[in-house]
Amino acid sequence: MKNKMAKILALLLAALVVFSLAACGKESAPATKEGTEKASESQDLLARIQERGTLVIGTEGNWSPWTYHDESDKLVGLDVEIGTLLAEAIGVQPDFQEADWDALLAGVDSGRFDIICNGVGYTDERAEKYSFSTPYVYTHKVLVVKKGNEEITKMEDLDGKTTANSPGSTYAAIAEEYGATVTSASTLDQTIELLLQGRVDATINAQVSIEDYLAQHPDAELKIVQVLEGDPVAFPMQKGDDAASLVEAVNKALDEARKSGKLSEISMKYFNLDLTKED
Q: What would the pLDDT profile of 181-208 be if each residue is shown by its tens digit?
């Protein structure tokens, strides 16, 4: 009788152990999945970038010497080199994705791009919507007309005239402030073509871009009639706590590149000028 009871108890104990193990197994799978999802949701933008392994960089790819394609169709330029430097500092690979100017900031809004490397001028208005890195270069704007144009010698002369600029750009906004009607142009080459054909009266653009164009096209019938004050150029990113650590990491990388002289070296390479200093 005792042996029989012992066997029954042993069987019950074994069944209990099996049931417990099965129950544990059923509970562990959903818990692991939920834990992973919660961990992913709790990661900020920098952590997601590092987990992904790439920094997605929005750029035009057609604005020399900032971002353009060389003779072998390779994407190069000041912003390409600095963007690559930032990605390396974060510990990931750069993933440059090209888009028209008016789609770049919208790409940050939608999360398509992590950062824009495209010579974006810092403005208080833009800073209300985006987080900006510390400035990496400072640029001057110039007012450009076709040679032979004696009517426009200063910004005030733009009232009632036409200019060519990228839609939504700082340059277009300035031209409109001075009373000009802006004709949209997607690239610098398109802008210059409109000006040389006489379809617009002037353009406002980055001095370095115009100087670079004139160096490549010394016979171009263009003249700079006014140089305007310099502007800080920085990298826009999403605004808010989610992107705070990315902004901090970008600023740290820029600070190190500035102290090491790397930023100055890149500026000299593409502009033949050190534009990393404000004055």
A: 999 998 899 999 999 999 999 999 988 8
Neighbours of 163 (CB within 10 A): 29
Domain count, the chain: 3
186 and 223 share a domain? yes
- Across-strand partners of 207? none
Residues 163, 221 within the same domain: yes
Q: Are 101 and 67 in contact (CB under 8 A)?
A: no
Compute CA distances 1 → 5, 6, 7, 8, 11, whole Å: 6, 9, 10, 11, 16
Residues 32 and 96 grouped into a single domain: no
Task: Please check whether residues 205 and 158 belong to one and the same domain.
Answer: yes
Q: Around Cβ 279, how many Cβ atoms within 10 Å?
A: 4
Beta strands in the chain (DSSP E): 54-59, 68-69, 75-76, 93-98, 115-116, 131-132, 137-146, 162-165, 181-184, 202-206, 222-233, 236-237
Each residue's pLDDT tens digit, 211-233: 889 988 999 999 999 988 778 99
| Residue 5 belongs to domain spanning | 1-42
Place of tokens 């340059």: 171
In a domain, 238, yes or no: yes
Which DSSP string do the residues of 3-35 spell out, in sequence order? HHHHHHHHHHHHHHHHHHHHHHHHHHHHHHHHH
